[in-house]
Amino acid sequence: LGNSIQANTEYLKQITAATSYLSPTEDAVNAAVDANMRLQELATEAGGSSLTAADRASELAEIDSIRTNLVSIANTQSQGKHLFAGTKTTTAPFTDAVPPALPTYNGDSGSINVVVSPSQSVATNIPGDQVFENGGPGSSSNFFQAIADLRDGITSNNTAQIQTASNNLTTVLGNLNQVLSELGGRQAGLSALSNTLSGFNVSLQSIQST
């Protein structure tokens, strides 16, 4: 009984460790969603009317600020480890570049799995190339590519390009929501498993005491 209780306790520690990475990862992706929504607002403003030179300069400045912040989000750390670098947790996953060049991804596509029960393991990360540049350069679901295209469209006052960038931002948003769904599912599963193991330990401790 003591061995069983100890084994369950170790799994509970693993669950806590996994959650401590999944939760800030979810927060970071939510911040990316907020950035996406603001960019779509800027795209709507830019595509809906003729902007003055001052208007374009103001929008471009905000877009560059959002992009810089997005790179910072993509380089989020928790407990000294980069969340979106794949298995290269000691390496900052993204190196920024001067627009319109895209940031460079330095991580990999690997998953970090933690064993949380005798028959189950869970991935504690989602690589940044799947979150922020899904599909690679030129892809309609690449967040940084969509920002670059929006920036170019506003710079050249090209409403068609602005609309395309807006559509791609919608595609990016769909990918981000899918990532959030995956993260939420993992955390919900871990929560249920934690409750189950905790209940087992209470029962085992009662039997052991008796």
Quick description:
This protein is mainly α. The protein contains five helices and six strands. The strands form three sheets. It has a two-stranded antiparallel sheet. Strands 3-4 form a two-stranded antiparallel sheet. Strands 5-6 form a two-stranded antiparallel ribbon.
Chart the SSEs and their pairings.
Elements: H1 2-48, H2 53-74, E1 77-78, E2 81-82, E3 94-95, E4 104-105, E5 113-117, E6 120-123, H3 128-131, H4 143-155, H5 159-209
Antiparallel strand pairs: 1-2, 3-4, 5-6
Helix pairs in contact: 1-2, 1-4, 1-5, 2-4, 4-5
Give an account of the 3D structure.
- This protein is mainly alpha-helical and 210 residues long.
- It contains 5 helices and 6 strands; from the N terminus they run H-H-E-E-E-E-E-E-H-H-H.
- The chain has helices at residues 2-48, 53-74, 128-131, 143-155, 159-209; strands at residues 77-78, 81-82, 94-95, 104-105, 113-117, 120-123.
- The strands form 3 sheets. A two-stranded antiparallel sheet has the order 1-2.
- Strand 1 and strand 2 (81-82) form a beta hairpin.
- The model has no long low-confidence stretch (mean pLDDT 95).
Number of strands: 6
Which class best fits the helix and strand makeup?
mainly alpha
Shape: elongated
Element pattern in H and E? HHEEEEEEHHH
The proportion of residues forming helix, as a percent range, comes to 55-70%
